[in-house]
């Protein structure tokens, strides 16, 4: 029960946070990199062109990856980096509240992504499905290898199979 609850919580968190990031990333892509670079320049973000490209891509692609549960730790870490930059260079001096330009939204998004990076996205996503499939294959191989090494009973006498090398 505890595992299912974790997987459901991870799914809801991934999808909700991913949708917020995709929305913000899409909004930035629609305005264009030049516009986002200008905005970052006015805010005093270092290397505004590089930061704009990274942020736009991290938000859009990283958010989409969170939603589908693919490469969750990597996507989440990229988003943590984007939120750390937003916190340090834009929002921290303005206080907590988002209505004042503060850091509450980037703090919450960054914290959620840090948790996802640390614990993963759960079983209900592509990463979880891929992990389950690989685990089942490994178990089948182990069972087949164990069966191949097991003694066989011929007329009540136990014999070991000779394993040949290729």
Automatic annotation (TrEMBL):
The membrane-topology field of this record reads: Multi-pass membrane protein
Instruction: Give yes or no: UniProt keyword Glycosyltransferase.
Output: no
**Any idea what this protein is called?**
Putative membrane protein YphA (DoxX/SURF4 family)
Q: Which residues form the signal peptide?
A: none
Subcellular location, in the record's words? Answer: Cell membrane
Q: Which organism is it from?
A: Nonomuraea dietziae
- Predominant cellular place of this UniProt entry's protein: membrane
Segments traversing the membrane: 105-126
* Recorded family membership: Belongs to the DoxX family.
Q: Look up the domain of life of the source.
A: Bacteria
Q: Does the keyword ATP-binding apply?
A: no
Which keywords does this Swiss-Prot/TrEMBL entry list?
Cell membrane, Membrane, Transmembrane, Transmembrane helix
A GO cellular component annotation here is:
plasma membrane
